[in-house]
Design brief:
The protein is mainly α. It has one domain. The chain is built from 7 helices and no strands. Helix 5 crosses helix 7.
Length: 202
């Protein structure tokens, strides 16, 4: 029997509270990545630690919103996306108030847009919302099939897919920094699983 605790949660206050947690977790992951990149010399150890942080952040951004929203239907998937969006806004506040004044990012980050510090924020909003949306779809589809919907169970295939993509890009000698390759692989693997869930339902 379906109860109030097993259906989608879309209350506005719950979305804001859950999104704040997601944003703070994301902020912690970004700070951890910055610490690793600053304290460790460039090399395989720093690259591997950075990759682990990127994958952990990806798992949090993709599946924590769906967990908080208890995504089971379209409403729950939309709620997960809303939680993801609010999480990116919370991170933006941390970025502006804490990271920017400390000059946490290298100058090349801003040089992408000719010195602007704002170029990446709309991209960040879209990416965070997209990952949470895809995570909501994967979670709802797994629940519909009666499968395990814990975050580790949902994340494992995506992380394995991300590692495979990162390995392929590395072997292809495209000179892509390993954490970047893993992050791109995570997005690709997550999107693939979400699209596969939609196709199976159709």
């Amino acid at each position: 029997m379906t109860t109030a605790t097993t259906v989608d949660r879309s209350e506005f206050r719950h979305i804001l509270f859950s999104g704040t947690i997601v944003g703070l977790v994301t902020s912690a992951a970004v700070i951890a990545f910055l610490v690793v990149s600053r304290l460790l010399p460039a090399g395989i150890v720093a690259a591997l630690l950075g990759t682990l942080i990127v994958l952990a952040a990806g798992v949090s951004a993709a599946f924590l919103p769906a967990f908080f929203a208890t995504s089971r239907t379209t409403q729950g998937i939309a709620s997960a996306a809303a939680i993801g969006l609010w999480g990116t806004i919370v991170f933006m506040a941390v970025d502006i108030v804490v990271l920017r004044p400390l000059h946490a990012f290298p100058w090349t980050w801003d040089a992408v847009a000719g010195g602007s510090t704002w170029w990446y924020l709309p991209i960040w909003w879209m990416l965070g919302t997209f990952l949470a949306w895809m995570g909501g779809i994967v979670t709802a589809a797994r629940a519909r099939r009666g499968g395990e919907v814990s975050i580790p169970a949902l994340a494992l295939p995506v992380v394995v897919g991300a590692a495979a993509v990162a390995l392929i890009l590395t072997l292809a000698r495209l000179h892509i920094y390993l954490p970047v390759a893993a992050g791109a692989g995570f997005a690709v693997a997550l999107t693939g699983r979400a699209l596969g869930s939609i196709v199976r339902k159709a």
